């Protein structure tokens, strides 16, 4: 290709790069591990641009040429941003299971009053919820699970070609299914603590009936917290293992990988 042909192809290539960045960059802002609030925006922006540089040569045949109408160009870009946020959000919902499980565990352990800032859930959250959310992020990055959503994002160009209407009905159904799966996973993760809370409360109820003169409440709170923290420390390895298996299965079910 001579210099004149290269110059003539630059506007097409620039528009295709913008379209690719609209989907990839929007997804990076929401993907688990890569799009965490703790990661500076400049780094997330750099990750999005890096994905564009790596993937654009293989996507040029699937990306449309720039339209003559500015409104049509804006529509294409907005559709790509929507698709990227949708795909990234589906993966993000899965990882939120750990934060939700941590919230439930804090309630069962009597630690619901100890609140810390939690960007994952917004506003203030419990200490165990924040701890498990960070543990999930470390697991996703350390085990390479983040590669599965990236692969689904790359393969999404075959499933949802740029310019095609966004499948709103299927998109909403996928979000509802992801929320249901995330909630089910969080309940499975918190199940041992539910059982422990039931046993402790039944024991305390029996103690209150047998020895009504004993101030059960003042004895129960410190003991419940200590036993709960000991149980959390003992169950952390299988807890992370169960989350890793559940997250992998959910990531493999993302659109584009099915």
UniProtKB/TrEMBL annotation:
Signal peptide annotation: none
GO BP annotations listed: protein targeting
Lipid bilayer topology: Multi-pass membrane protein
Entry GO CC: plasma membrane
InterPro entries: T3SS_IM_R
Family statement: Belongs to the FliR/MopE/SpaR family.
Alphabetized Pfam families for the sequence: Bac_export_1 (PF01311)
Protein name, UniProt field: Flagellar biosynthetic protein FliR
Localisation: Cell membrane
UniProt source species: Neoroseomonas eburnea
Transmembrane segment boundaries: 95-116, 128-148, 189-209, 216-236
Tree of life domain: Bacteria
Keywords: Cell membrane, Cell projection, Cilium, Flagellum, Membrane, Transmembrane, Transmembrane helix
């Amino acid at each position: 290709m001579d210099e004149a042909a290269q110059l003539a192809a630059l506007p097409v290539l620039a528009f295709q790069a913008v379209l690719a960045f609209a989907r990839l960059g929007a997804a990076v802002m929401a993907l688990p591990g890569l799009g965490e609030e703790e990661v500076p925006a400049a780094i997330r922006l750099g990750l999005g641009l890096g994905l564009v540089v790596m993937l654009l040569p293989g996507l040029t045949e699937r990306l449309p040429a720039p339209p003559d109408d500015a409104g049509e160009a804006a529509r294409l870009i907005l559709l790509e941003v929507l698709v990227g946020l949708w795909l990234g959000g589906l993966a993000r919902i899965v990882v939120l299971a750990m934060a939700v499980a941590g919230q439930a565990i804090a309630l069962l352990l009597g630690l619901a009053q100890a609140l810390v800032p939690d960007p994952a859930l917004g506003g203030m959250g419990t200490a165990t919820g924040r701890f498990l959310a960070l543990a999930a992020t470390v697991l996703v990055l350390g085990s390479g699970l983040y590669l599965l959503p990236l692969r689904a994002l790359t393969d999404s160009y075959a499933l949802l070609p740029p310019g095609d209407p966004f499948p709103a009905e299927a998109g909403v159904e996928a979000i509802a299914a992801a929320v249901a799966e995330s909630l089910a996973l969080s309940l499975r993760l918190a199940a041992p603590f539910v059982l422990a809370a039931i046993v402790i409360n039944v024991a305390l109820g029996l103690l209150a009936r047998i020895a009504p003169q004993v101030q059960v409440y003042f004895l129960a709170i410190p003991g419940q917290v200590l036993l709960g923290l000991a149980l959390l420390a003992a169950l952390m390895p299988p807890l992370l293992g169960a989350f890793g298996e559940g997250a992998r299965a959910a990531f493999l079910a993302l659109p584009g990988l099915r």
